[in-house]
Every structure is written in structure tokens, then in C-alpha cells.
Amino acid sequence: MNFKDTPLRIHRNLTRAQSSVAIQLRSEHIGLNSYLSRRKVRGVEKPSCPCGYPSQNVKHMVLACPQWANGRGGFLRQAKDRSFEAMMNSPEDMARITQWILNKGWIKQFRLAGEVEVAMSDKVNRSGRGKDGIHTG
């Protein structure tokens, strides 16, 4: 994959959890069968996706996998360019994609981070304070 811009631009407005997801998405070192089978993780013998596609990789997950379809339309509609490379290089698209992954909890390694983000968001909403602790109400 060709990365046009520095990673800092991609991560600037992401939470820590989103930033972690973004790094792993862009490097493809993430808990999907394609990576796990290459690393010879016990219990993952094949790179194939449970949907039947030959490789459960980031591009397949983000753009095509029917098992991950729930919520995909939201970020695809908002993307200026729906190509995989463009979305991986867009700060706005990366924010939407990483939040989608955290919200869905489909990748085991991010489930706790997603739950923490939801809890923190709920706490912020109840307190009337914004992301940076500034009162918004």
C-alpha cells in the first residue's frame, strides 16, 4: 500500500484506541486470519475469511465482507473517494472506519477498547463536558 502522507496527519484527531486500530489497519498487522495464519497463531491454519473469501484481510473486511456489512454503508457514503488506498490515507475516513471497528467489537483484541470508549463517551455526555473536558452544555 502506498501511504501519501505522514502518519501524524492520520492520527491527529483520533483517540488512542482509534490510533491503535489505524496503525494495525495500515500495517495489516491485525487480528484477521490473513495475518494470524502468516504468524502461525494456534487455531488459525488458513488465511481465509469465514464468509468463504480466500483471504480475511483489511481490504476485504473494510470494503467487501458480508459478515462485516453492518454499518459499512455509513462510512462509505461519506467517503470522498471509496478506493481502499484513499480511505486509508484520509484522516476523516480513518476516523469513521476505526470507530466502526471499535463499536462493532468484531476483532477480539479491540473489544475492551471499544467498551471503554463507549463508557467514556457516555460519561462525557452525562457531564456536559466535551472531549477535552470543556463544558458544552
SSE string: HHHHHHHH
How many distinct folded domains?
1
Uncertain runs with pLDDT below 50, 5 residues or more?
131-137
Q: Count the helices. How many?
A: 8
Question: What distance separates the N and C termini?
Answer: 43 Å
Rg measurement, Å:
16 Å
Overall residue-averaged pLDDT value:
84
User: Beta-sheet strand percentage?
Assistant: under 5%
Classify the helix fraction into a percent range: 40-55%
Count of beta strands:
0
Write down the overall geometry: globular
Sheet having the most strands? none
Structural class: mainly alpha
Care to describe what's here?
Residues 131-137 have low confidence and may be disordered. The protein contains eight helices and no strands. It is mostly helical and 137 residues long. Helix content is 53%, strand content 0%. It is globular, with a radius of gyration of 16 Å. The protein has one domain (7-70, 81-122). α2 (16-27) packs across α7, α5 (72-78) packs antiparallel against α7 and α7 (91-104) crosses α8.
